[in-house]
Amino acid sequence: MPTLARVPALVATGFLAIPVAEALVTLPSDLLGKIEAAPIDPELADTAAFSEAYGFPLEGGANCIVVAGKRGDDVRFAACVVLASTKLDVNRTVKQLLDVRKASFAPMDQAVELTGMEYGGITPIGLPSSWPVYVDSRVLDAPEVVIGAGLRGAKVFLPGAVLGELPHVEVVEGLAVAAA
């Protein structure tokens, strides 16, 4: 089993996506001190593969999903963070939050272009400031979660509650539903 060389996130900026590193340095020191990062094998970036290879509990995985909603010609983007053991409620909750008629996962190429991050590594840290970031309330209860680092070759580790304190975050009850 490969090991994780976790270091404080501020020390790890060399292996994080540029928007992520730039956002980290703006965080208050009390939050930043609770965030770590580690390089990983990019082939193991997907949540299930990462959990199996590195022995990290699947319930500690949090996925950041870029959603696009449309009302007329207006397209609205948001990021949604849910535990890997749950499923994002796009058709009801996200649609209502964005106040749109239709919402769906943003196309991969568009998500990559708009975030400046790699697909499979998109994270709530360093997203465009105009986007809301919705975090399912269950994420905050996790003692530790692993999220993307903006690149497939690294992961970020932090207490779930810290996600609720990040800029542009709104904690939402029922953002996710139990996975079938």
TrEMBL record:
Residues of the YbaK/aminoacyl-tRNA synthetase-associated domain: 42-162
Gene3D superfamilies referenced in this protein's UniProt entry, alphabetically: YbaK/aminoacyl-tRNA synthetase-associated domain
Top-rank lineage group of the source organism: Bacteria
PANTHER family membership: CYTOPLASMIC PROTEIN
Protein name according to UniProt: YbaK/aminoacyl-tRNA synthetase-associated domain-containing protein
Organism: Curtobacterium pusillum
Lineage: Bacteria, Bacillati, Actinomycetota, Actinomycetes, Micrococcales
